[in-house]
Amino acid sequence: MTTARAVLDRCAELDRFTADAPRLERVYLSREHAGANAVAGRWMEEAGLRSWQDAAGNQCGRREGATPGLPALLVGSHLDTVPDAGSYDGMLGVVMAIAVAERLRDHALPFALEVIGFSDEEGTRFGKALLGSQALAGVWEEDWWDLRDRDGLTLHQAFLDFDLDPRRVGDAARRPDELVGYLEAHIEQGPYLEAADRSLGYVTTIAGARRFRLSFIGEARHAGGTPYPRRRDALVGASEAITLIERRARDSDCIATVGRIEVQPGAINVIPGRADISLDLRAATDGERDAMWASLLAEIEAQCGARGLRLDVRETHRAPAMPCAPWLQEAVVAGIRSTGDDDPIGLWSRAGHDAMAVGLTTDVGMLFVRCHDGISHHPEEDVREYDVAAGLDALEAAVLGVAAQVGART
Ligand SMILES: [Zn+2]
Question: What residues does the ion ligand 1 have nearby, CB within 5 Å?
Answer without folding.
Answer: 89-90
